[in-house]
Amino acid sequence: MSTVELTKENFDQVVSGNDFVLIDFWASWCGPCRQFAPVYEGASERHEDLVFAKVDTEAQPELAAAFDIRSIPTLMIVRENVAVFSQPGALPEPVLEDVIGQARGLDMDEVRKAIEDEQQQNGARQQ
């Protein structure tokens, strides 16, 4: 499956319309981004059940800013509208495969509960 180009116009639709989305924040001038691109494309062909998307940070600075992207490439994984992974750097293929496997194995009910617990704790500290 080829990657989907994300823009501020289609971002919400693509991310909320799919349960598992990998997002590569990149720029054409970035050497490590160009190095990571074939690894990312290869993974998209092996994992056709997942959505692989790209955000060109030069063309979409609002999206990069919204996710506080400070270094590229940055890989983000969103499962069921929850960002479960975000890390800058060009990942080697075995590491990318491991990250995908770990993200697949997450119990999203447990993830949401942990987020809820953390929010409650933070709310209690602020009072």
UniProtKB/TrEMBL annotation:
Residues 1-105 form the Thioredoxin domain. PROSITE patterns: THIOREDOXIN_1, THIOREDOXIN_2. Keywords: Disulfide bond, Electron transport, Redox-active center, Transport. One of its GO terms (cellular component) is cytosol. Pfam families: Thioredoxin. InterPro entries: Thioredoxin, Thioredoxin-like_sf, Thioredoxin_CS, Thioredoxin_domain. GO terms for molecular function: protein-disulfide reductase activity. Transmembrane segments: none annotated. NCBIfam families: thioredoxin. Belongs to the thioredoxin family. This is Thioredoxin. It comes from Streptomyces tirandamycinicus. The gene is trxA.
